[in-house]
Amino acid sequence: FSSRTLWRFGYSARLLKTNHFRTAASNTSFPAVWMVLAQYSGRIPGLSVVVKKISFSTMPETVEDKANLELYSPHPEVRGMTLLNREAFKRTVVVPVLKVKKEIVNRLLKSLKHMLLQRPGLKRVVEDPEDEDSRLVILDPHKIPEFSLGESEQEVLKQLNVCPEVSKYNLELTYENFKSEEILRAVLPEGQEVTSGFSRVGHIAHLNLRDHQLPYRHLIGQVIIDKNPGVTCVVNKTNIIDSTYRNFQMEVLAGESKLVTKVKENNIAYELDFSKVYWNPRLSTEHGRIIELLKPGDVLFDVFAGIGPFAIPAAKKKCHVFANDLNPESYNWLLHNCRLNKVDNKIKAFNMDGRDFLLGPVREELSKELPILKEEQKTSFHIVMNLPALATEFLGVFRHLLVGEPCSTAGLPTVHCYGFSKHDNPTKDIQERAEASLGTSLDGRCSTYLVRNVAPNKEMLCISFQIPADVLYKRPCPGEANPASKRLCTSKDFSEEKLLS
């Protein structure tokens, strides 16, 4: 299988390109590759995630799966329900129970923990209507074939002096005992995709429902509130993020229409209006990864800063931060979160177009700092451009952004530019787009990191590179008497000078 296939399941292709893995995989038949993955699990970070997530649709449904669906399905009459009626989900099922003296119940529960019935909100021990000194312990019917215990379980009961006879018990399951996926699977038309996953933003659950799920959207929203403590508002995105300000239209499906919320990411608190600014909780790891690259004293230019998930932790790390966002709402929440985290005196915030920010404050700061940067100084300059739909198009701004000669190539700014790709080779695709904007090759001068799989055949990546000196600098021509002259040389002028000398 290709690196791209593995990437879709949240796994970095670079980690798989080790010599040991390549050798093992190349000499192994396809079905056995999973054994190779399991063998390397724990030695290659993240591998266990891949093994857990990947499954094959051709795998036959087991008898136990079918039994689970039958036993743990709500009443069939709920099919097609669009207005939630919790009472309609009641169902009585027959389950095995053991009669146990109440003084040894706790010991039995510990000894037969793996045999007990596990259901949300379900009591595993109930009173015995025929004997007040006894209790009925509910067992999982899928682990008690034909209501008969195995030898090992019978031995445990013998030691506890408990009768091994298994009885049948009519158990009433209610709405509270079913999981959200089970409820939605029972309600939506058979064979259609069930949505139970969502993004959590403070007290808000954010869904992206498909067309066939829309008639059930209010029911889906209420089920999510019922089954997820702390969620009090459920919204569904009603259009793609195509606006200038990177927000989207949304519909409140259930709960309170309160869209100002609080979130915590990497131990830093943020407040925001989810309807007016961009926030994606799936980028938490990426925010942390970039911050790890920074050292105290470094300079960070955040071109599309949003409410500050790069800028604020960088400032807390004692970096010098210049943060910008075009959206006035994002800018205001950025200022608010700077005050909230007590870094408002460490961040210079701007409300400008990204190009104007690069041509203005960024150029001014680099023009001031780079000429005086000494070789032994450890300060690094980082430029983060997290606008995946368009960021690569902004890279052309770096062409001859500065005038003069670099004092130290080590001090050249490092760019972290994000982009989406639907290409078969997303790494090659984003590099070629970056090169087209910069007007130079980045072969051997860049690294690419897969951030996440956004949708089928759509990846989000980050390409990082130091801006080449011949791209960033527009040098005064050789022999020019006035360095401030408007006439500036090109790389061709320098080549000719070297030939003449």
How would you characterize this protein structure?
The protein has 501 residues and is of the alpha/beta class. The protein folds into three domains: 91-173, 2-Layer Sandwich (Alpha-Beta Plaits), CATH 3.30.70; 180-264, GMP Synthetase, Chain A, domain 3; 280-474, Rossmann fold (3-Layer(aba) Sandwich), CATH 3.40.50.150. Helix content is 30%, strand content 21%. The protein contains 18 helices and 19 strands. It has helices at residues 3-7, 13-16, 19-26, 33-40, 47-53, 63-71, 105-111, 151-159, 180-187, 217-227, 284-293, 311-316, 328-340, 354-369, 391-394, 426-438, 469-472, 491-500; strands at residues 91-101, 125-127, 134-138, 166-173, 199-201, 204-207, 233-237, 250-255, 260-265, 268-273, 299-302, 320-324, 347-350, 381-385, 402-403, 414-421, 446-455, 458-466, 473-474. The strands form five sheets. The protein has a seven-stranded mixed β-sheet with strand order 13-12-11-14-16-18-17, with helices on both faces. A four-stranded antiparallel β-sheet has the order 2-3-1-4, with helices on one face. Helix 4 (33-40) packs antiparallel against helix 5 (47-53). The longest helix is centred in the last third of the chain and has 16 residues, at 354-369. It is elongated, with a radius of gyration of 30 Å.
